[in-house]
Amino acid sequence: MAEILAMPRADQQALLRVEQADGVLRLILNRPPANALSIDLIAELQAELDRSAADSSVRVVVIAAQGKVFSGGHDLKEMTAHRNDADKGEAFFEQTFEACGKMMQTIVAHPRPVIAEVNGIATAAGCQLVATCDLAIASDKATFGVNGIDVGLFCTTPGVALARGMKPKHAMEMLFTGEMIDAGTAREFGLVNRVVPAEYLTQVVNKYAQVIVAKSPAAIAIGKRAFYQQAELGLADAYAHASRVMVDNMLGRDAQEGIAAFIEKRKPQWSEE
Questions:
Q1: CA–CA gap between residue 3 and residue 82 (Å, rounded)
Q2: pLDDT for 74
Q3: What are its GO biological-process terms (predicted)?
């Protein structure tokens, strides 16, 4: 096991704990019990995502959480306090949703795979965070919901992520009813990839992360970007775009090295990207 390069911050009250080892960056939400996505926590996530995108030593990002709740979504107490502002909170609400949307888009645009490690409740924007990550692995104790409708607030922004990762009727069922679903149903709906016993969750996430770390970082970055780009195109345009990316990928150093290593029956030596 490699030495931890960035230990958790000395201040145990830090909103976000940051760990890095063996090519894996772990971002741990640290606002128990709800791990609510306050404007400050969103900003810290944004900063770490931006930093790690330019750090070649980071090959996989894992977003996890401290405690029994992955994230309860936006900090409704923080938002309610701003109803006393002169504009009744409008500017702060805009700031919050804009910052959260930017952070979610940064996950999608991040050159590394981002994995959600979910061991507890993920609701509203917390569920949105899970849906936005490239992969999600949940414990058998995890539950999920977009329950803003219960307080008169339709989870429209979480719906953006749900609509892109689930069948429309599954997404609408969650959005309309606000009902929680268990981890098994979340897997059936396409919200998570795997459901594992809680005691093995981190071990399984680390296993998946290390499998990815062993792959070509250049190919991963190219492929992730192309996957999301082609998903927004019509069929013919998607194939045209994907074909061009495949050509560029084939011309790259890592594809040449990887194919040669396969033919020569040896381990490939990947570039740093």
A1: 44
A2: 97
A3: fatty acid metabolic process
**Alpha carbon of residue 34 to chain centroid:** 18
- CA angle 270/222/164 to nearest 5° reads 135
Q: What's the rounded mean pLDDT across residues 213-232?
A: 96
* The pair of three-digit structure tokens given for residue 263, joined into one six-digit string: 């033919």
Residues 21 and 148 in one domain: yes
Within 10 Å of residue 66's Cβ, how many Cβ atoms?
A: 18
Counting residues of the chain whose pLDDT is more than 90, the rounded percentage is 95
Q: Please identify which residue in the block is written with the tokens 């976000």.
A: 16
Strands of the chain, DSSP E: 16-21, 24-29, 60-65, 69-71, 114-118, 121-123, 135-139, 143-145, 181-182, 194-196
- So what's the pLDDT on residue 90? 97
Q: 270 lies in a domain?
A: no
**Parallel/antiparallel/unpaired status of strands 135-139 and 143-145:** unpaired
Report the CATH number at residue 51.
3.90.226.10
Report pLDDT for 272.
80
Last residue in a domain, options 213, 231, 246? 213
What was the pLDDT predicted at 13? Answer: 72
State the CB neighbour count (10 A cutoff) for residue 137. Answer: 27
Single-letter code of the amino acid located at 129: L
Q: Which range of residues forms the domain containing residue 29?
A: 16-213
- How large is the average pLDDT for residues 232-260? 96
Reported confidence tier of residue 6, pLDDT bands at 50, 70, 90: very low
Question: What average pLDDT score do residues 96-119 get?
Answer: 98
Longest Cα–Cα distance of the chain, Å, equals 70
